[in-house]
Amino acid sequence: MCKGAAEEKNEKYVKNLKEATNAGMRGRERGAEDACQVSSEFNKSNTFYLFNHVDITITYHGESETNWGIVRLVTARLDPKSYKHSDENHLTCNGPPMEIPGEYTDKLNVTYTYSVKFEENKHIKWGSRWDYILECMSHTSIQWFSIMNSIVIAVFLSGMVAMIILRTLHKDTIRYNQMSFPVNGQKEFGWKLVHGDVFRPPRSGMLLSVFLGQGTQVLIMTFITLFLACLGFLSPANRGALMTSAILLWVLLGTSAGYVSAKMYMTFRGIKWKTNFLLTALLCPGIVFADLFIMNLILWVEGSSAAISFGTLMGILTMSFGISVPLTFLGAYIGSKKKQFRYPVCTNQVPRQIPQQTFIRKPLFGLIISDILPFGCIFIQLFCILNSIWSHQMYFMFGFLFLLFIILLITCSEAAVLLCYFHLCTEDYHWWWRGFFTSSFTAVYLFLYAVYYFFTKLQITGIANTILYFGYTMIMVLIFFLFTA
């Protein structure tokens, strides 16, 4: 049955169906990247063919094993067509295509129609209803190759860093063992000279402890979320399940953030553990919520359906102050009452003078070079993730993503240990913040890649859309900054 667009008022729609890109073709020119495949009847030069009809084929699976008397919709297919409707009162789903001459400049009235057909398929089960979408995705094979390439790069870099660490430490250990009793006036050198300053508390120790606590919370949240996704509990079929699970886990893991933050702060000989608790509970979550509120305000002004309702925002605030903050306080209280970590050596009363450092040994150069290793593990997979977010493509390879998550942790840890060791060998004992930024600086590369992706892969126009993109990107960068730290 063929129906016009004006007859759709009382029709029921099937939601959550994937959208397809509509494209037209002029004559025989085929230049569009995502143009539709059309028949040979569209062969007139300097002529436009307008797709004004859609054939909708809905496949259902009958529950023959039960007596429910219902069926389940498993697939939906939309085929664009072009028909020249001569009589609007008697619409038909056949006929010649609708041709528009290239030089046509007058007003044109277009009648849009659609037809719906239901077909039973006893082979497609409800649990495998997404397979046909995954199989027809154009970049699936490229994604597999990219993931395998990322794994090879990550394993190679991890092996290289581990080999450098083991060989360097082995040589230094042999050399120091041979010089345990200095002969002929030989003196200690390298990292052994700063043993009395290496545990000196860092500057802004409270802020560092807050970041470490929040990073622990994000790390555990990410691990559990990806693990559940690998087991199939967070299926792409259940929209919003991944984000909902991540938010709930973040709320429930406030105890870990408070404990780690307070424990590290007390290790730095801090005494304001209540201030440390407040910063741990409110600093980073407050930044994320403020950014999210601004983005949501823009969506409200634009009248977008993607805007989060006021009730949902209040629900997030209620969970934060009603559950997360009390749990953070509990963790901070336990961490502050625990026995402090005892350093293996005593700290010198007078700080040791740090020798003049060359440009290669300065912190910025080390951060730029060392963070290439962790970013090299994820940059190809990052392209797939950004495509799924901004190009409305489905992402379903959580098993490989979980493996990359583990390899990224190993690479970040090895890069931080390696760079800290090199700096200690130059008699620079300010390693606390340097070790923190060695891995977390990868977030800067993430932001730069997001900027590159915006200008080269997306066609976003308008100030509001640009602000939304970079606003959500900043949230992602901040979370990644805490996670890698």
From TrEMBL:
The gene is LOC118888371. Keywords: Membrane, Signal, Transmembrane, Transmembrane helix. This is Transmembrane 9 superfamily member. The chain crosses the membrane at residues 144-166, 210-234, 240-265, 277-301, 307-334, 364-390, 396-424, 436-455, 467-484. One of its GO terms (cellular component) is membrane. The keyword Membrane applies. It is a multi-pass membrane protein. It comes from the Eukaryota. The keyword Transmembrane helix applies. Its main location: membrane. GO terms for biological process: protein localization to membrane. Signal peptide: none annotated. Belongs to the nonaspanin (TM9SF) (TC 9.A.2) family. It holds the Pfam family EMP70. It is found in: Membrane.
